[in-house]
Amino acid sequence: HQLRGPLAGIRGHLSLVIDGSYGEISKKAHEIIGKVFESSGLLTKTINDFLDVSRIEQGSMQYDRKKFEAQELVKDVVEELQPIASGRGLELTFENKCEGSCLIYADYAKIRHIFFNLIDNAIKYTEKGWVKVKVLPGNGVRIEVKDSGVGIAANEIHGLFEKFVRARDASGINVNGTGLGLYVARQMVEAHKGKIWVESEGKGKGSTFIVEIPSSK
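RESULT FIELD:
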């Protein structure tokens, strides 16, 4: 909290400067402040990742479970990330294959965090083409995040969900990260008695991240 509080305040003020609430600024200043705001977002994510890892390893991570529709949560995340995908010239689509309900009993904020990271990563690691997100029944509720991006070599898949591992070949792509996101995602999914894994035919052939969470009847 001692780190996140002041950082949130900084980001709040930067946002007000960017949207003109403090008056007009030059185009150059706007660009510089925009980069500072983006960097502060990365710092926030890094702090959150390390705090999550600390809670997980200390066994102090709390889960506030309730019933909700998985397809509605995932659709909301897709809509939030749509402008970023469009800005990169990518097609981001959502497909709901649930017939009626895909109800799960889980921590809404943590499940949202998982899919935000998975879809955001798919966008970051895809230079051109598409990202397809699908929700469907399958051993409970199954969510797939498929991209036409850089892909993953077969010998790198096994350790992808370990700490500080970034197996995707990001050469030529500006991707920042701690290598903790997938580790945190796996721990959170397994805490919900679910499964997470990735499938890829190799470098340059895209990837599909798959999450299965028990349904709530």
